[in-house]
Structures are given as structure tokens and as C-alpha cells.
Design brief:
11 helices, 8-stranded parallel sheet, alpha/beta, binds phosphoenolpyruvate, about 40% helix
Length: about 250
Amino acid sequence: MRQKMVAGNWKMNGTSNSARDLVSGIKAGLNGQSPEVVVCPPFVYLPIVAAEIANSAITLSAQNMCDQDVGAYTGEISGPMLKDIGCEYVILAHSERRAMYGETDEVAASKYAAALKNNLKPIFCIGETLEEREQNITEDVIARQIDAIINTSGVASLANAVLAYEPVWAIGTGKTATPDQAQGVHAFIRNRIAGHDAGIAESLRILYGGSMNPANAADLIAQPDIDGGLIGGASLKAEDFLAIINAAG
Ligand code: PEP
């Protein structure tokens, strides 16, 4: 039985005070719900949030990392640094990183390998653009993105990772994939991985991301291959994020 996960990607939002307020509001609203709850603040607020969630059920994730461990990489943050500050997870290959910062499948795979080497669990994002969906190549794109990590790190690496299916056209747009559309792609992902290893596929958590909110979360997460959500906009209000956690179980 896969434990559901609800992860909040705060992106580049907030201040030290609002980060503290947001996470303490989430903490105060938790009452033993079953999903794993993860928050992903900006790098500079990780220590503040880490202090707030000590001895709570909330776990910490970064939003990105460097594929190198140490050295002359100005402006970068490494896996050992994230581990040191208390991160358990790291979001990798988010479509905003792919589209705005030129992260190729190769870069994403290299970061994925570096995270695992440092005992950080990747929340690895995959998803098609609107153009790709309209060209009917969604499955080709998803397959290519998954193969990039399987070919470099092996299918067994997915035992320590989470995938997030995030159709790019649904991110921050208010357009959500329908539960059927999302389920179709999630099933494709799980089947493709099952082609390599059925046990890994069965235990792998695959999150949906793309304008998930308190109104649509329950229907999406009720789908058999959707194991929770990676939430952007709706994770910035404790009340909304908590409503999604409640919808997940
Ligand atoms: C995201 O960027 O991971 C995301 C899902 O954003 P939103 O919920 O705002 O669409």
C-alpha cells in the first residue's frame, strides 16, 4: 500500500516571516492525517522552516540542487548542503527549471544521480507541454523523460524516489487535467516502469501536479495510480494546503 504524499512547492515566494507563519499554520492544522506532508521552501528559508518542523510530521524538501558536491560553482547549492540543513527530499527537473534554465534530460539525470548519492530522495518532475499534447506525443515525451533517469541510475533507483507528473499546460494556469486524463498518464508511467521491474512500479509514488486545489484534489487523488499531489499556488495558504491534505486522506 503506497502512502499518499502532499508536497507544497513554494517556488520563489515569501519572506522569512511569512515562511515561518505558513509552516506553523500547516503544523497547527495537522491532526494525524495519513498522507506524508512535505514542504519545499526557497533555499534561504530552509533553516527557518527546518527549525519550525522539528519534532513534527512535516518533512523538508529543496526545490533544486547542483549535480556537484563541492567546489567552484558560484551560486549553486549542493546535495551535502541540503542534507546538512535537514532536507529529506529535493524537487528535480521541474518544468520551470527545464523551460527557463535550460535543464535538459541529461542535466536532470545527473542531478537525480547526485541526489541519490547524497541520500536525498528526488521528487522528479515529468510532463508534456500543450504543444506536445496537441501533437499526441505526450507518451513519447514522458517515456523519454523517464528513460533519462532509468538509463543513468537504473530502475532500482526509483525505490528511493517519487515521480511527479505535471502537465506543463496545467501548471499555474488554473487548468487542471481531468481525473481521467491524469489517471491515463499515471497508468502509462507505472506500466512503463513495470516493464523494467513490477515490484518497483507497484511501490512507486506518482504525484499529480498542475493547479491542484481544495476543490479538485479529492477526485484526482482518488484515481488508482495518483498517489498525492505536488502543489504550487495552493500550497501558499495553510488553509488550502491543509484542505488538500485532508482530501488525500
Ligand atoms: C508546480 O509548479 O509544481 C505546480 C503544480 O504549480 P501549481 O499548483 O501552481 O499549478
